[in-house]
Amino acid sequence: MIDQVRSRIEVAVLNFLKVLNSSTPAISILPMINRKKSNSRVNHGLLTEDSWIFLSRSFCTRSLMRENTTKSFMRVWKMMEMCYEILVKEKRVTQRELFYKLLCVSPDYFPSQVQVNQTIQDVVALLRCSRFSLGVMASSRGAVAGRLLLQEPDQEIVDCTTCGSSGYAISGDLNLLEKLTMKTDARYIFVIEKHAIFQRLAEDRVFNQIPCILITAKGYPDLATRNPAGLAILCTFKYGSIGMGLEAYRYACNIKWLGLRKDDLAAIPEESFIPLKPKDLQIAKSLTSSEILQDNYKEELAVMVQSGKKAEIEALYFHGYDFLGKYLANKIVQVDYI
User: Please, is 36 exposed, middle or buried when counting C-beta atoms within 10 Å of its C-beta (0-12, 13-18, 19+)?
Assistant: First the structure.
């Protein structure tokens, strides 16, 4: 795939020069699949419960001749140049490393990480490739703990039950992950939004009571909180995201919501509820109008909006710091929540 991506970048450059040097020279536009919500669709599996977001064949363009896309046009070319250099050198870089490099050489076009992330997805949409095939990988920020044995080539076996409350760091290098040998007797994988909740469960060694693996990305996706933003994160993990464009389907999986639900609120002291902010209400409105959100999730949102309050899973500490493990053990036997 790397060789194909290099060839696609070369073809894009040659086509640009061909139009520029033709008898009627012009600056060619860059057509790419539109990553806006209006161009998204949901694919539902026929024989499984899996669903994921995909983008239809509606295109948008980046052009040097239109004022509102001039900088975006230049960013795409600069990003392709940088990625081509990375691929030729057979290197891998994180998005953060790429930002600092571009900040030094093109500060007017890449003043923040936002421009880098968006432009990478523009290039993905233009070249019809994955981010990883461009030589770009995510930063290592995830962690895993629990009933899992890992072994990298020519390395010692890592027992993730002995990694403490911080867990074992998950690499952002997909090539390295593919080379891992993994063994487990776990029946469940708990994906946890908050690192603090991950640490609590790992410290309590919840995997001794429940045959499970704990995973956190320190922000994505959500298991722990019951608020509109948390539910939006869960949907990103469950269905993929529009922002990830053509890569959305690669990361979607049939995850279940084990976090706080409306039936759990009676166990939470009134003092622990937090008033909804305007941003919370905005997210709730967007989710409610989305075709991807299943009806029982919409009912949960409706109860939250009507009450004007939200609750976070830390409120369960009212019953003791070890209560969270008991809560999860009870949840996984409730079929309606699975």
Answer: exposed
What are the Cα distances from residue 92, in Å, to 127, 137, 156, 277? Answer: 18, 7, 24, 40
Q: What is the CATH number of domain 1-28+64-137?
A: 1.10.10.10
What residue type is 99 in one-letter code?
A: F
Categorize the per-residue pLDDT at 226 as very low, low, confident or very high, splitting at 50, 70 and 90: very low
Mean pLDDT value across the chain: 81
CATH architecture of the region 142-334: 3-Layer(aba) Sandwich (3.40)
pLDDT of residue 337: 45
Paired with 43 in beta bridges are 52
Q: Is the pTM for the entire model greater than 0.70? A: yes
- Per the DSSP assignment, residues forming a β-bridge with 192 are 216
Residues taking part in catalysis: 100
CA angle 40–46–52, rounded 5-degree value? 30
The answer to whether the beta carbons of residues 189 and 213 sit under 8 Å apart is yes
The two beta strands, 136-137 and 93-94, are parallel
Tell me the pLDDT band of 250, cut-offs 50, 70 and 90: low
For the chain, the domains span 1-28+64-137, 142-334
**How far apart (Å, rounded) are the C-alpha atoms in residues 242 and 34?**
10
Q: What is the pLDDT of residues 106-137, one digit of tens each?
A: 999 999 999 999 899 889 888 888 888 999 98
Positive or negative, the Cα torsion across 208, 213, 218, 219? Answer: negative
Mean pLDDT of 193-210: 92
